[in-house]
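Protocol step 6 of 9: fold each sequence in the batch and record its structure tokens directly after the sequence line. For illustration, a two-sequence batch is reproduced in full.

Sequence one:
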Amino acid sequence: MAVRVRIALCAFLVPVLANAASAQDVPAELIRSWKVEAISGETVDPGVMANLEFEGAGTVDGSGGCNSLFGPYSMEDGFKIGPLAVTRKACPPTVLSQEQALIKAISAVRNFRLEADNQQLLLLNGSGDAVVQLSAVK
């Protein structure tokens, strides 16, 4: 059964990842690990370690605080993340609520901005509003 799930996931992700950003399209400053600090203007619970790691091959992975998430990002026609695959572990309700808010915010991302000497990353929606604020992991 587990093999079938892996095969199905691979069959889904191969075409998606084929359209991911190529290394030359991606700003080098983006390629690193980032800690989620705020979602839609609300500071995250400091006890919930949510993070994203952008890779040069056009993929992103990380944690919403409980579940792992991964998928492609694209630099074509703006900046888009997803679709994301997310594990489904049991989580405390407050952690799950924050994680769901993060996943929803990520689906609205259409651009990004680096600030504070590339130590802060703002993921922006189509209106230019910050939907996720992240800080560089050292």
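Sequence two, same batch, same settings:
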Amino acid sequence: METDLQIAPVTLSPSAAARVAAIASKQGKPAILRLSVEGGGCSGFQYKFGLAEGQEPADTVTETDGVRLVVDDVSIDLVAGCVVDYVESLGGAAFRVENPQASAGCGCGSSFAI
């Protein structure tokens, strides 16, 4: 049985979308969060977040509550299936990536291995 349901390659949680919207509003920027992956960090790759002015033609774009999450075409293979969440704890508040592809990570949560 075939279905038309498609799973987004990356997802922005409602709490992360709300936080991006608040930050963007304070800075007078569009509510667009860019997620990219760079070499480095404790485990080999690290996540990088930043507000974006817009999206590039090759970007993968998903939207939650009016907030866009954009990922470049090189990084998307490393974060496919991820959920970007915003977590507040006693240790502080941060965007956190739940990456089902990661075989290892580090305590800071910003670095991973595949």
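Proceed to step 7 once all outputs are recorded. Observation for sequence two: Residues 10-113 form a domain with the Hypothetical Protein Aq_1857; Chain: A; fold (CATH 2.60.300.12).
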